[in-house]
Amino acid sequence: MTVTRLVYRHRWPVRVMHWINVVCLCVLLGSGLQIFNAHPALYWGNRSDPGKAVLALEGGQDAQGNPRGTTRIGTHAFDTTGVLGASKVDGEWTARGFPAWATIPGPGWLAMGRRWHFFFAWLFVANGIAYVVWSVVSRHLTRDLVPTRADWRGLGRSIVDHLRFRHPQGEEAIRYNVLQRLAYLLAIFVFGGGIVLMGIAMSPRMDAVLHWLVDAVGGRQSARTIHFIIATAFVAFVFVHVFEVLVNGPLNQLRGMITGWYRIRDERRETRHD
Amino acid sequence: MTDRRAFLRNTVLALGSAVLTGCDRISESETGAKVLESAEAVTRRVQRFLSPSQALAKEYTEADISPVFKPNGSILPDTPAYQALLRNGFADYRLEVDGLVERPSRLSIEDLKDLGTRTQITRHDCVEGWSVIGKWTGTPLASVLDHVGAKPGARYVVFHCFDNYEEDTAYYESIDLDEAHHPQTLLAYGLNGGDLPVANGAPLRLRVERQLGYKHAKYLRRIELVASFADIGEGNGGYWEDNGYEWYAGI
Fold it and tell me: Which InterPro entries match (chain B) (predicted)?
């Protein structure tokens, strides 16, 4: 018989800030795609010269007059009708970058998309600063997030284990494993910090004092492109994160992030019957 | 397991569409829009705290200038007053300056040039996301304000334009005196070394380099100094502001 017990895994500030982040990221993504749709193309440098886009979502018609959505990446063109470039809004074919189900608000409405975006951007920034300050003060950062020497030594094994969907059990499941630590550090500091900085770098007012940052990344349109790339990276992170939750006892994981209590199997007395 | 998976998938889909519908409802409600709008004040205060009021927007070199300065919004006003000026090559153009000023004036482009000129190569960022770089020549708005003398109580400069939107709604914009006195805030009559083209706002347009494109009013007809813009247009300080965009366009 398997003996299990509940352990206190996530402290309340982590839980509260985690769920604030969930809301922020969802709204920021949806409203960000709404804003992107106002000019659904990305460039490198300071200018957005016509024909020089590195990515463009274009709406048009084919030879028969049917609506057609095209995704252009550099010189390659892909037919993405129905999703990217052209999709239906309330049953009507519309030329729009991302489809209505992915944007906030649904229909094209740049002014309102901006309101959503900046409101939740400030919440995201405040939440991020609060998290980092709390993590340093409570030593969550050094104890739980920064990999230990043993973690680094076990990196290869951890990668193999993850690929085989073998996850730490028992006492080992209470602490973050090395890939988790690295993924969280990447998401918090590189993605989180980077996307905020690139957002600020798009501000004409802030450019007056931060033009070194804008220059460092190649220009204002580069900053916009990097902002978009990091948003995509956040989506990838969330996919992996939610996948790991789903394959590791989703209800137990959810309880852990809601109440703090997480059930582990006690290995010392565990006998395997399955 | 299949049942559970279907349940999970349906729950996620239902939740997702409920959230999206909810977001649209909030967008259309007055309270929702008001709450979301509060971020504008945070943006304004934080940006003004982090960047000095006289900090200059980056200036570029001739090599950075865009091949074409993309015109946006109105590109040829059809109002009779503008058409009359255009027929005459803007020879009869006079900028009206009035409101809370000591010396209301009517200034020709030559009068403006006598007040001082400045040339700057700057980046223009549209609220839609694109950027173009152009070389602007004009008279600093600060010199014009010194010339007419702002009365105590004047807080904003309102720009009334020749171009109409939705047939009969005149374009207008407003900035505060702080932004008006910024050295790069110009009344521009030249682009890329030539006269300002009609599509870009001839004969005179505003350059307010640390804000987004819609603040840079084109086809200037009249400048008015006011204590409040609550009684102008729909009271939000500009045509696009009356349509839901932020008055402070620093990001």
Answer: OxRdtase_Mopterin-bd_dom, OxRdtase_Mopterin-bd_sf, TAT_signal
